């Protein structure tokens, strides 16, 4: 999957640049939004009306005491069948984040001459949807066992990864702008940005942990999704901008390790 190349930004405003983006790019993102809605709502309907409950419990719903590869992947796309707000909240949050990512990453960054590398967004989205579920499930298994939970499901871990991607895009713009400036206050500005970054992440983490007292939300899976959503795009950027084969291999190994370790480290638990 690859997106058409957007033209070089004009000298006008961000809005004027948005008008120069090919309609095919807007269409692709509209289809992506429609696909997310169709995938989550269609899969949930199948679980409620078509798929036998025994199959769902064995192969789809993540049983943290007896997980399988199938449930580690599919559980990220199913929601609590007894709580309709579960899928509604996840869909609305994911939609808002994907739209914000489009505005920042496809319009604002290129308009300000700070675009992401070619194929960055297709590669990131594919990893988020196809590989990240295993990492989030690994974190869910580890944390749910400690919390005394038996089952886990939901798209929220991937939704928080999209939030991490949005943070990454916004931070990349700010840091690039500061680091490319030649003013005498650049060093001071960098420290201010680092402080602001730490404060932003601290606030996001605190917000995640406000759900801990409910006892029904696996906040550690949310936190893992957020942090992986920040880290993976930076590694993908390193891979896509590598100058030679060796750098690509190193970046690829880091990407694989970041995804693989959270997926399997629960196997070291004594219970």
UniProtKB/TrEMBL annotation:
Residues 136-235 form the Peptidase S54 rhomboid domain. It comes from the Archaea. Keywords: Membrane, Transmembrane, Transmembrane helix. The chain crosses the membrane at residues 26-48, 60-79, 91-112, 124-146, 158-178, 190-210, 222-242, 249-269. This is Peptidase S54 rhomboid domain-containing protein.
């Amino acid at each position: 999957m690859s997106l058409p190349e957007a033209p070089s930004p004009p000298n006008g405003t961000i809005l004027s640049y948005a008008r120069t983006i090919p309609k095919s790019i807007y269409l692709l993102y509209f289809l992506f939004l429609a696909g997310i809605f169709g995938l989550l709502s269609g899969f949930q309907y199948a679980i409620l009306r078509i798929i036998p409950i025994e199959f769902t419990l064995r192969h789809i719903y993540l049983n943290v005491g007896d997980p399988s590869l199938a449930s580690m992947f599919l559980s990220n796309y199913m929601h609590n069948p007894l709580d309709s707000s579960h899928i509604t909240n996840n869909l609305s949050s994911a939609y808002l984040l994907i739209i914000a990512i489009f505005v920042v990453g496809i319009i604002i960054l290129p308009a300000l001459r700070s675009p992401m590398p070619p194929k960055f967004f297709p590669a990131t989205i594919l990893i988020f949807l196809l590989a990240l579920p295993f990492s989030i499930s690994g974190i869910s298994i580890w944390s749910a066992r400690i919390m005394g939970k038996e089952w886990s499901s939901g798209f929220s871990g991937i939704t928080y990864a999209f939030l991490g991607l949005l943070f990454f895009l916004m931070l990349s713009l700010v840091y690039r702008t500061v680091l490319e400036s030649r003013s005498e206050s650049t060093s001071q500005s960098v420290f201010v940005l680092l402080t602001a970054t730490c404060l932003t992440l601290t606030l996001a983490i605190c917000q995640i942990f406000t759900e801990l007292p409910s006892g029904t939300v696996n906040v550690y899976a949310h936190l893992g999704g957020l942090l992986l959503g920040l880290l993976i795009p930076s590694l993908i950027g390193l891979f896509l901008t590598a100058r030679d084969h060796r750098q690509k291999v190193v970046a690829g190994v880091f990407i694989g390790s970041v995804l693989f370790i959270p997926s399997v480290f629960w196997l070291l638990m004594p219970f």
